[in-house]
Structures are given as structure tokens and as C-alpha cells.
Amino acid sequence: AAPMPASLSFEQAAALPLTAITAWEALFDRLRVPSPPHAVPRKRLLVIGGAGGVGSVAVQLAAKVAGLEVIATASRPSSVAWVRELGAHHVIDHFGDMQAQLKTLGIEQVDYVLILNDTDRHFPAAAAIVAPQGTVCTIVENKDALDVSLLKSKSAGLVWEFMFTRSMYATPDMVEQGRLLEEVARLVDTGILRSTVSEVLSPINAANVRKAHALLEGGHVIGKVVLKD
Q1: CA-closest candidate to residue 194, choices 3, 18, 5, 30
Q2: How far apart, in Å, are the Cα atoms of 121 and each of 48, 154, 176?
Q3: Bridge partners of 69?
Q4: Domain boundaries defined on the chain
Q5: H-type helices in the chain, by residue range?
Q6: Strand pairing of 90-92 and 157-160?
Q7: CB under 8 Å, gap of 24 or more: what pairs does 133-142 form?
Q8: Which residues pair with 48 in a beta bridge?
């Protein structure tokens, strides 16, 4: 637990904790992105699913806090505009050939890949795109076996992020999630990060719960949907 950002409304703040913890842990604990930045030349991160809830926070953290060169994926004009507003330096379409699109941008490989959408589908491309000694992180469970041998010749790694690991296993560092939320609140209140809520449905009733689920199941939600009483 941590105090909410003083500059946000309750519904704006409600959109942040789960996605902020997931994005923060994925970048700084799993991918081990340096913070504050010190890498020269600047390292690159590909965020697959940049306009979703976690992606909307990850793009901001990577670009504005870690100082990475961020390539985000988005497939519609509205989501492309959204990730650019959040700080993405380049945008490609995850429904197309991502490796070819990166080469068009003059990018042969990236140091980090963060998969936030359909691990089974995107892992082979991630393995091809990640640089030697780079790392791929995913938050989405796979249905089929992943061919991790694709990473062997590169000495590249595959890691998972699950925000409930610390609480589920009562790890000694459980308190870190409160601390990182305090830092997220500070970053919001100083204008570095912004809330990712895109739609607020009110009141909380069966009809609006059904509407929220329908929006999420449609796969086209930008940022987070919040229910307000």
C-alpha cells in the first residue's frame, strides 16, 4: 500500500496500481533496466502491446524514467497517437512483420523486448529481434510450448513478470511494491508520469460491469477502464 498521487482524482489513481507495479517490476526487476540511466549508447526496448493498461505505463517509465529508446506496437490510428503521446519514439504494428518494420526504421535489434499480448504468437519474433545478450520478458501465459532454444546462440534470456509473486510467496522483499508505488505517485505529482485511465463508467452496476467486460474482451481498449460508484 502507498498514498495515492495528490494530483489525481480517485478514479484516475485507481487505474494505476496493478499496471504500474507490473510495468515497474517488468522493466527494473525482470529486465534489469538500469535506473537511473547510465548506458551509452542508449539502449532500446520494444513494447509489444504498448497501448494497453500495462503498456501505457511501461512506455512512460521506459522513455521518461529509464531513458530508453522505446519502440511500441499499436495497430489503430487512435492507439498509435496514444503511445506517441506517452513517449514512444517509434511505433510499429504487431499484426505485421515487426522485424521488417524495425529494419525500415534502421533498427536491426533491440536490447529488451516486453511482451504484453499473446506470448505464443509473438515469442518467435521477439527471439529474432532481441539482441545478443538481451532479454525478453512476458506477462502473458503461454498455451503452447515456447521454443526457448531460439535464444541459445544469443545467450539471451526469457523472464516472466507476475505482480502477485511477492504476495503469493510472501517473499522477503514484499515491501518493495509499496515503495515503488510511492515513487510512481511522486513521478505523477511532479508531472513525469500521467494516469492511463481512458474511460470511466458510472455507476457501478450490472449493466456497466457488462459494458466494461465487453470493452476489454473486444481487445481495443486504450489504457484502463475504471468503474466509479
Answers
A1: 5
A2: 11, 20, 32
A3: 44
A4: 10-168
A5: 10-14, 17-24, 53-60, 77-86, 98-104, 119-129, 165-168, 176-189, 206-217
A6: unpaired
A7: 134/109, 134/110, 135/30, 135/31, 135/32, 135/111, 135/159, 136/112, 137/26, 137/30, 137/31, 137/112, 137/113, 137/161, 138/114, 139/22, 139/26, 139/54, 139/114, 139/115, 140/115, 140/116
A8: 115
CA 18, 23, 26, 27 torsion-angle sign: negative
Whether 58 shows a pLDDT value over 90: the answer reads: yes
Q: Which CATH architecture has domain 10-168?
A: 3-Layer(aba) Sandwich (3.40)
- How long is the chain? 229
Res. 183: pLDDT tops 80: yes
Mean residue pLDDT across the chain = 95
Contact residues for 122 (Cβ-Cβ < 8 A; gap 6+): 48, 94, 115
- What is the pLDDT, as a whole number, of residue 38? 63
The angle formed by the CA atoms of residues 170, 172 and 175, to the nearest 5 degrees, is 90
What span, in angstroms and rounded, lies between the C-alpha atoms of 219 and 199? 15
Distance CA 169, CA 192 (A): 32
The amino acid that residue 158 corresponds to is L
* Residue 135 backbone dihedrals phi, psi, to 5 degrees: -140, 140
Q: Which triple of cell numbers denotes residue 73?
A: 506496437
Q: Whole-angstrom Cα distance, residue 191 to residue 200?
A: 22
pTM: 0.94
Which grid coordinates belong to 192?
513525469
pLDDT in tens, 80-126: 999 999 999 999 999 999 999 999 999 999 999 999 999 999 999 99
